[in-house]
Backbone:
């Protein structure tokens, strides 16, 4: 897969390079939380993954998402609060992700 100026980009090339989704996250009284995401089709190598909590309601505004344990087949969402020692409860809060692979 290579993208060149003036070249034709096929849909298959995009599918091999970019994937995105939303993971609904639920937990009760947790000081941190992890959830595994598996790609429907693995990348050729390890992609960069970017996360966003798609809600600012209540305590969700005080939590930070990180992508850890990245592989060609998926990653783990790791959530933790900005204030050490606090806990939170989430009910189906959407965490959006975008994975981009560039050889």
Residues:
């Amino acid at each position: 897969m290579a993208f060149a100026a003036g070249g034709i980009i096929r849909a298959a090339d995009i599918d091999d390079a970019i994937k995105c989704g939303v993971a609904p996250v639920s937990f009760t009284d947790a000081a941190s939380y992890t959830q595994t995401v598996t790609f429907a089709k693995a990348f050729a190598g390890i992609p960069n993954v970017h996360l966003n909590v798609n809600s600012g309601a209540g305590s969700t505004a005080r939590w930070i998402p990180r992508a850890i344990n990245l592989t060609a087949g998926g990653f783990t969402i790791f959530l933790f609060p900005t204030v050490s020692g606090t806990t939170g409860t989430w009910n189906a809060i959407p965490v959006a992700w975008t994975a981009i692979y560039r050889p």
Summary: Residues 17-77+85-93 form one domain.
